[in-house]
Amino acid sequence: MKYMMFVCTDTEPDTDPTAAPDIDDWVSERDARGQRLTGDALAPPSAATTVRVRGGELLVSDGPFAETKEVIVGFDLLECADLDEAIEVARSHPMAYRGRIELRPFANPDA
């Protein structure tokens, strides 16, 4: 089953910086196990462009539309047997300690 894993910042990170695993080790292990299909870091929110259509008119604005302190900083596309396996993958990611990880299954898991 495929899951999108959003890697996000958090205003309340873990205070023990030694607890977080190394990101390169995490990527290597997940790639070797076939659990991570792709992933990457994102440019900062200041590089974002928000696109909306309202009343047939295209509205384009710089930066993120939402006013928030937590932002998505990266993503990974996972292939896991089930949600429990996806949670195990997410809990070992360094940003689970410093930020937040959001897991979402794809709407059509058979596609």
How would you explain this protein's 3D organization?
It contains three helices and six strands. The protein is an alpha+beta fold and 111 residues long. It has a single domain (2-105), classed as Alpha-Beta Plaits. The mean pLDDT is 90. Residues 1-105 form the YCII-related domain. InterPro entries: Dimeric_a/b-barrel, YCII. Belongs to the YciI family.
In terms of topology, how is this protein built?
Blueprint lengths: L1 E8 L13 H11 L2 E6 L7 E6 L2 E6 L9 E8 L3 H9 L3 H4 E7 L6
Antiparallel strand pairs: 1-5, 1-6, 2-5, 3-4
- Structural class call reads alpha+beta
Number of strands: 6
CATH T-level topology = Alpha-Beta Plaits
Low-confidence stretches: none
- For the biggest β-sheet, the strand order reads 2-5-1-6
Instruction: Determine the number of helices (DSSP H or I, runs of at least 4 residues).
Output: 3
Q: How far apart are the termini?
A: 10 Å
What helical percentage do the residues reach? 10-25%
Quote the average pLDDT: 90
Q: What form results from the Cα inertia axes? A: globular
- C-alpha Rg, in Å? 16 Å
Strand content: 35-45%
- Name of the top-level CATH class: Alpha Beta
By CATH, the architecture is named: 2-Layer Sandwich
Family: Belongs to the YciI family.
InterPro entries: Dimeric_a/b-barrel (IPR011008), YCII (IPR005545)
Pfam families: YCII
